[in-house]
Amino acid sequence: MGTKTADPRGRIRVPPFQAFLDANRANVYRFMAVAVGPQDADDVFQETFLAALRAYPDLRDGSRLDRWVLTIASRKALDHHRAGRRRALPVAQVPERAGVEAPPAVDLHDPLWEAVRDLPARQRVAVVHRHVLDRSYGEIAELMECTEQTARANVYQGTKRLRELMA
Amino acid sequence: MTLERDLKRLAPSATTARAATAAAYRLGDAGANEGLVDVAVATMDSPIGELTVAVTPRGLAAIVFEGEDHDAVFDRWARELSPRVLMAAGPTDDARRELAQYFEGTRERFETPIDRRLIGPFAWDVLKATRRVGFGHLATYGQIAARIDRPKAARAVGRALGSNPIPIVIPCHRIVGASGTLTGYAGGLPRKETLLRLEGSIV
């Protein structure tokens, strides 16, 4: 691992995008379901894989694509929370989204949801990587483009806060 | 210590996996609408089993029969066309419509453009000559060899036909042995027989 996957002519070899999508869709969706919530998981999932599709032909490294896509997913989840906060301020009454709500992939009546929703975005994303996807702190640092120390701090504070809210 | 378990329970993997499958399915056409899909792939039913068609911005690049090694085929497309190979129905609509019409008996000629990047130079000579063999007609390997001015190359012609990435649309099923026997077909003789029967070439 960590070496470039190149063919004999030295070009970078990446799998067909469909194979990459099939291998990673479940993980990314599970991450999104908790990191941004079931109602928006679909949209941010699409944004993540569209960004991956856009960048795919220019990939310099065909290995560790699972981490690559989770890095994009983390960025998109954080963007989503930032955009949500910006939108919420100037427009007092955001109209409900038209149409029927997508059937939730999860049980929204679980009180843990409220606690998760109250977490600051970076803590929420870090907690999901750690406790839903079982990632190491080193990996979380890579996925969230921060130091391992910051990753630990985010997981710690997020977890502590969840315990307090659930107590 | 149950917090970890409770968090996992919030998004049960079976439920999110199902949602992921549906979301991934929608990704293809979203990507195609933004011009990000270089090889759009879709499947369709036919009298000779499920067909998988691959369409690029240049045209129809491949048709794959049910039972072939699809992973190997996708890998080849990624290598030789573009790694952006994705299931996306929209770009394949024209090709699939023409194929459906062919199987319904309302179309004898295909008009959808062809992407010949999966076809080598010699094979292209062979397949060009093959394309001129019309619906309901047959030719022999030797006749095709003669038509491309390689009269002794009947066996090489056979190999080129066997490697045809766009069967049905490039009608390699219309090429038969010297005695009129059906001989080989990459998709298997029963499929060749069904196609020729559909065209009224055999009874």
Protein architecture, described:
The complex is a heterodimer of chains A (167) and B (203). Chain A is mostly helical and 167 residues long. Chain A has seven helices and no strands. Chain A is globular and about 55 Å long. Residues 88-102 of chain A have low confidence and may be disordered. The mean pLDDT of chain B is 94. In chain B, the strands form two sheets. Chain B has a four-stranded mixed β-sheet, sandwiched between helices. Chains A and B meet through helix 1, helix 2, helix 4, helix 5 and helix 7 of A and helix 1, helix 2, helix 3 and strand 4 of B.
Largest sheet of chain A, if any?
none
**What share of the residues of chain B does DSSP label as strand, in percent?**
5-15%
Figure out the total of helices of chain A: 7
Q: Which sequence of SSEs, written as H and E, runs from N to C of chain B?
A: HHEEEHEHHEHHEH
Coarse structural class of chain B: alpha/beta
- The rounded distance between the terminal residues' Cα atoms of chain A is 43 Å
Low-confidence stretches of chain A: 88-102
Q: Which term fits the overall shape of chain A?
A: globular
Widest β-sheet, arrangement of strands of chain B: 3-2-1-4
Principal-axis shape of chain B:
elongated
Strand content bin of chain A: under 5%
The two chains with the largest interface, and their residue counts, are: A-B, 44 and 41 residues
Instruction: Please bin the fraction of helical residues of chain A.
Output: 55-70%
Record keyword descriptors for this entry.
heterodimer, A: 167 residues, mainly alpha, 7 helices, B: 203 residues, alpha/beta, 4-stranded mixed beta sheet, two-stranded parallel sheet, 44% helix
